[in-house]
Amino acid sequence: MLQKEICSFTQKPFPMRMILKVVGYSSSTWYEKPLQRTGKRGRKPNIPDDEALELIKMEIKQSKFKGEGYIKIKSRLQRKKHIIGKERVNIIMRENKLLSPHRTMKVKKKKEHTGTIITKTPDVMWATDGKKFFIDGIGWHWHSSQYDSADFMREMSYLGLNMSKAFVRSPQCNGCIERFHRTLEEELFSVETFSSFNDAYEKIDKFINDYNNDWIIHRLKCLSPIEYRAEHAESQRKLKDLLWISDRNRLVLNKI
Predict the structure, then answer these.
(1) 50, 146, 167, 223: which one has the fewest Cβ atoms less than 10 Å from its Cβ?
(2) Does residue 241 lie in a domain region?
(3) CA distances (Å), origin 201, targets 13, 186, 207
(4) How many domains does the chain have?
(5) What is the largest CA-CA distance in the chain?
(6) pLDDT greater than 80 at residue 38
(7) Domain check: are 148 and 184 in the same one?
(8) Would you state the pLDDT for residue 114?
(9) CA nearest to 52, candidates 42, 63, 43, 60
(10) Torsions phi, psi of 31, nearest 5?
(11) What is the rounded distance in angstroms from the CA atom of residue 74 to the CA atom of residue 112?
(12) Across-strand partners of 6?
């Protein structure tokens, strides 16, 4: 306020040094006072928030799946050359209530499991478990095999497979198939109704096909199962080529 006052003697504004002395304020503190920043810090994004929101909504609408998280939405946008940071996608989806519902984990006593269910290559370990679903007019249908039956055990022996049974309520043993069952429940069983066995089989078959081709899995480097298999096969082919070249060069050197 004093800065705007005019001295009656000089007809000029009061000197700032005099004003600071009168109010008991040090000049160093006054001149070094940081200015209040407004708006968001950092570089301005290439895609504005309103445009990013529309892209996210469109991706959610066009997706074959329900309730995908922000990391998968970010990965799908990146595939279409829409580069939006992971945390920014998270913030935009949270502010607009687009995130999938939060799932609370129940704390239960678990049996100790010293093995591992994560393999380095495909087709080393297969996980399977029963899953039931409801058919209108018929009731619950159990979609699985009886694992202790003589037919199942003979088939395992014929294929040369070893069985490792899981403990009850122990995700360290069968976490992969349980995670798939949760996805199957959320994406299909909880949103679709089945009028017959054929209707159920057709819709389940379509979901499995969509899952294998388009479902993004974090631990597979945000690739679908088929994409990861193709990448793994290509890496193995390149490795074999390198080993063949190395063996050929070693043979040539031995002849020399």
Answers:
(1) 50
(2) no
(3) 87, 17, 10
(4) 3
(5) 112
(6) no
(7) yes
(8) 58
(9) 60
(10) -75, -20
(11) 36
(12) 13
What are the tokens at 218?
Answer: 């974090």
Six token digits for residue 214 = 């388009």
pLDDT band at 42 (very low <50, low <70, confident <90, very high): low
pLDDT tier at 92, thresholds 50, 70, 90: very high
Look at residue 236 and tell me if it is in a domain: no
**C-alpha span between 211 and 227 (Å, rounded):** 11
Q: How far apart are CA 186 and CA 172, in angstroms?
A: 22
Asked if 64 and 135 sit in the same domain, the reply is: no
Residue 160's domain comprises 131-215
User: Which residues, including other chains, have CB under 8 Å from residue 59's CB and lie 6 or more apart?
Assistant: 73, 76, 77
211 lies in the same domain as 139: yes
Phi-psi region of 18 (alpha: psi -120 to 50; beta: other; left: phi over 0): alpha
